[in-house]
Write a structure and sequence with these properties.
- With 329 residues, the chain is mainly α.
- It has one domain: ABC transporter involved in vitamin B12 uptake, BtuC, CATH 1.10.3470.
- The strands form 2 sheets. A two-stranded antiparallel sheet has the order 1-4.
- The longest helix is centred in the N-terminal third of the chain and has 31 residues.
- It starts with 6 loop residues before the first helix and ends in a 10-residue tail after the last helix.
- The N terminus is likely disordered.
Length: 329
């Protein structure tokens, strides 16, 4: 057996199912985006100023990077709660390595992220620990390692700050952080739509048993999905550390919830098999618009989490595939 499913075994049918579920979710997400832009523009005339739009774009780029990795795990029916800890570890490691190895700190930190994701995938697929528990545990380990490397924040000395221009600089008048976000989006979009592994990630999330019966290597696919999540978290950690000129062991904590929110608000189903990079792009923009807008119109910071929680619940209610749940009478 070659390991590749024939169209009759699962090539076309899951794709058609995914499309039927995806369109309403995308429309819902786009509707939310338009609504938030209108409301915040009315609430503050400077919301759509060039300066504020640029800030929204830079924030969205970081959310997009970690969200694109997270969506790969969610599409398979799993979840990665270690992204925050991994971002923290990468931010600290990045600041330690920059004075020592210069530009080599970038690929080294990305490889660390990919390896961490591969470790998560093996805990899920080979040790057979649920992804929620496995990544919750490894996330704590990553934070612990970050504290062991440096229990306090590490700031970038002036001598190495030019090395951060890869993220903080500009190219033809466009901020590099926006270009990195765009490249990440294009790369993940091509992966999911035009490669075998991308289609297989959708198939496993749609029906893992049928994928296995069709001859797919489910273990390998899940390992790849979690490795991609590690890659996204590592890139986001580098972007965040570069933007703040520092790294510290709790810098990524908030991105655990925000990465999941970015995915589900964009319309990707938590049950797997429906959604993808385009949904995540929309979700990242929505989240950045919401967080920025709530601040500029003066919504209390303690109440902001309430609105975010309600938005997540609403989004999951719209996208959740209830046909995958057992009916309990």
């Amino acid at each position: 057996m070659s390991g590749e499913p024939t169209p009759a075994a699962g090539e076309k049918k899951p794709l058609l199912v995914n499309r039927k579920r995806q369109f309403p979710a995308i429309y819902f997400a786009l509707g939310l985006l338009v609504l938030f832009i209108v409301l915040f523009s009315i609430g503050n005339k400077g919301f759509l100023s060039a300066y504020n739009v640029r800030n929204i774009g830079m924030s969205a780029s970081i959310l997009l990077a970690v969200g694109l990795g997270q969506v790969c795990t969610i599409l398979t029916g799993g979840i990665d709660l270690s992204v925050g800890g991994l971002m923290s570890l990468v931010s600290v490691l990045f600041m330690v390595l920059l004075p020592m190895v210069g530009y080599w700190a970038y690929p080294i930190c990305i490889l660390v992220g990919v390896f961490a994701g591969y470790l998560n995938g093996n805990l899920l697929s080979r040790v057979r620990i649920p992804s929620f528990i496995a990544t919750l545990g490894t996330g704590g380990i990553f934070v612990s390692v970050a504290y062991l490397i440096s229990p306090v924040a590490i700031s970038a000395p002036k001598a190495i700050q030019p090395l951060l221009e890869i993220v903080n600089g500009t190219t033809f008048g466009v901020r590099n952080i926006l270009i990195i976000g765009a490249l990440m989006f294009v790369g993940f979009l091509v992966l999911e739509r035009y490669t075998i592994i991308g289609r297989h990630i959708f198939y496993v999330g749609s029906n893992v048993r049928m994928s296995w019966l069709s001859g797919l290597n489910v273990t390998r696919i899940k390992n790849v999905a979690f490795s991609l999540s590690g890659f996204g978290a590592a890139v986001a950690g580098i972007m965040l550390a570069s933007r703040q000129y520092s790294g510290y062991p709790t810098i990524g904590t908030v991105y655990i919830l925000n990465s999941i929110a970015t995915v589900v608000v964009g319309g990707t189903a938590m049950t797997g098999g429906a959604g993808g990079a385009l949904n995540t792009l929309i979700g990242a923009i929505i989240m950045s618009v919401l967080q920025n807008g709530m601040t500029v119109v003066g919504i209390d910071v303690y109440f902001q989490q309430t609105l975010l929680g309600l938005l997540i619940i609403l989004s999951v209610a719209v996208t959740f595939d209830r046909s995958k749940l057992a009916i309990i009478k």
